[in-house]
Amino acid sequence: MKSEYLGPHVTVAAVVERDGRFLVIEEHTSAGLRINQPAGHLEAGETLVQAVVRETLEETVHRFEPEALVGTYMTHFARPSSDVTYLRFTFCGKAGEKVTGRVLDDSIVRAMWMTHEELNASVERHRMLLVLKCVEDYLAGRRVALDFIHTHSVAPVVRA
């Protein structure tokens, strides 16, 4: 039986490199502890850039300044109960130092810095295959200017 299409889940992720290391998180998932970029869902009323800044802060306690879009990625999971599609917008940029007094989101065990080689050697622990793909796209120089992304606010309908 085919499930009803409800549209993709829109997510954002951050690729942050510092001194040859990438900022990643270790998080609790239904499949156990997994490695991921700081990432999460777009919330109502947010722009994609606002969402990646918020998610990076919540999951790493580092402020994030997006500089470019690395790519958009669509992943489809066919599950017995329902199919799920994720549309991920991955940004690259700079992270500041840790914000004092902030705590990580509940499911996050820790933020850590890993080299490309360490990420490549731990693929079996990645939350999804996109973790390494996004880093490799970043290393290949894939960048789209942030002004390529447009957010159109719809004014509420006024009825007489």
From TrEMBL:
Listed cofactors: Mg(2+)
CDD domains, alphabetized: NUDIX_Hydrolase
Any coiled-coil regions, as ranges: none
E.C. designation(s): 3.6.1.-
InterPro entries listed in its UniProt record: NUDIX_hydrolase-like_dom_sf, NUDIX_hydrolase_dom, NudJ
Keywords, comma-separated and alphabetical: Hydrolase, Magnesium
Magnesium among keywords: yes
The Nudix hydrolase domain, residue ranges: 7-136
The organism's place on the tree of life at top rank: Bacteria
TM segment ranges: none
Enzyme class, broadest EC rank: hydrolase
Assembly description: Monomer.
Family designation: Belongs to the Nudix hydrolase family. NudJ subfamily.
Name of the molecule in the record: Phosphatase NudJ
Organism of this sequence: Candidatus Burkholderia pumila
